[in-house]
Design brief:
Order of helices and strands: EEEEHEEEEHHHEEEHEHEEEEHHH
Low-confidence stretches: none
Oligomer: single chain
Helix content: 40-55%
Shape: globular
Mean pLDDT: 93
Number of helices: 9
Strand content: 15-25%
Largest sheet: 6 strands, mixed
Number of strands: 16
Strand order of the largest sheet: 1-5-6-7-4-8
Structural class: alpha/beta
Radius of gyration: 22 Å
């Protein structure tokens, strides 16, 4: 599957060393959102196809959709938002189960359970359960490898942090913020938190095209260890919010709560992204910031053999995690076959038309 670089693509959920982390709550704002469609259905029941139809219609209506992909299957969608998150459609099934908080007022359930042949699925119950258990095992093994890799990467980041000069980072961040963000605003900006990268069935996958779609000006922070870049981005995030700018923050899936990896200010078409050996940024850039400028390089380089060994071991573990995701995807495909054979896709199509019709009426 190829991606149009004029479109924005993210992940809302990812396997991490802390387990599966969901950001689905980020796109359901009861004040901002006019209509939210929560799909309930099994694997292979047409959820992703329904969301793609929603996105296509949003494009035709002049709403710019944002695509949120499934980290277990990059080709499938977990959600689509359009018109600044005023219209949202999402997969509300586990592992990112979503229940309506204000049903009917702006949230609409789209159940696909009445589109399948339950009797046929009951006959295949044992086979489906066995496959689902195998799928869960693959995801558990993936998270085990991620936990080990996260520990090693955290060790490297901790070593590097000891040799970062925080005052240098702070001065640089303040200068960039003053130049790019403007003065402090009376009220802080709003923040949305997504993932731009994840460990997927295709390996460590990043939506680099999203950066091109969102940014006319880009700062690329070259930092293999992640210590200086994390400090810098955390400061820039604070300065951007204080200046009243709405931002999109993307955290590292290996440290999903602490380590900011990408920062975007959509109204300024400005971005800050981290580039390293695990996921280098291949596109055009405005300015490269080398993390070593903020560090005592002589002191840190005394640990280079240990760092090199640790990073290599972490990369091996990440490769094993990705292999588990690829195996999980194959098993999930086998589960889907049972549901696909039991679905009445004409009924699913009719439900999709109802969603699209209400989307048109909202205009």
């Amino acid at each position: 599957m190829t991606y149009d670089h004029s479109q924005m693509h993210f992940f809302l959920g990812a396997n991490t060393p802390q387990g599966f982390v969901s950001r689905f709550g980020q796109i359901i704002d009861p004040v901002r959102c006019k209509r939210c469609y929560i799909i309930k259905g099994g694997p292979g029941s047409g959820k992703s196809t329904l969301m793609k139809g929603f996105a296509d219609e949003a494009e035709k209506l002049g709403m710019r959709p944002i695509y949120f992909h499934c980290s277990s299957d990059v080709a499938s969608l977990d959600a689509v938002s359009a018109d600044g998150d005023r219209y949202v459609i999402l997969d509300g099934t586990p592992p990112h189960a979503v229940e309506p908080g204000c049903p009917g007022a702006f949230e609409t359930l789209v159940p696909l359970g009445d589109c399948w042949n339950e009797e046929a699925l009951q006959k295949d119950r044992s086979a489906i359960l066995e496959l689902m258990n195998r799928n869960r095992l693959m995801h558990a093994q993936c998270r085990m490898y991620l936990s080990a890799a996260g520990s090693l990467l955290g060790e490297v980041s901790g070593m590097a942090r000891d040799y970062v000069f925080p005052e240098k980072v702070a001065r640089f961040a303040s200068a960039v913020a003053s130049r790019e963000f403007g003065r402090r605003a009376p009220a802080p900006g709003n923040e949305r938190v997504y993932f731009l990268s994840a460990v997927t069935d295709r390996g460590l996958f990043s939506f680099n095209g999203t950066i091109e779609a969102m940014c006319d000006k880009l700062y690329v922070i070259d930092d293999d260890c992640g210590a200086a870049s994390a400090m810098l981005l955390a400061l820039l995030r604070s300065f951007a919010l204080e200046s009243g700018r709405d931002i999109i923050s993307c955290y590292c899936p290996m440290s999903p709560y602490e380590k900011l990896e990408h920062l975007f200010i959509p109204e300024l078409r400005l971005g800050f992204t981290t580039s390293n050996k695990r996921h280098p940024y291949p596109g055009e850039l405005f300015r490269t910031i080398h993390a070593r400028r903020f560090m005592d390089t002589d002191g840190f380089d005394a640990h280079k053999l240990r760092v090199r060994f640790t990073m290599r071991a972490a990369s091996e573990l990440l490769g094993e995690a990705a292999s588990c995701m690829a195996q999980a995807k194959k098993i999930h495909d086998e589960i889907e076959k049972y549901y696909i054979a039991s679905m009445d896709f004409e009924k699913v199509r009719e439900k999709g038309l109802e969603v699209v019709s209400s989307l048109k009426q909202g205009q």
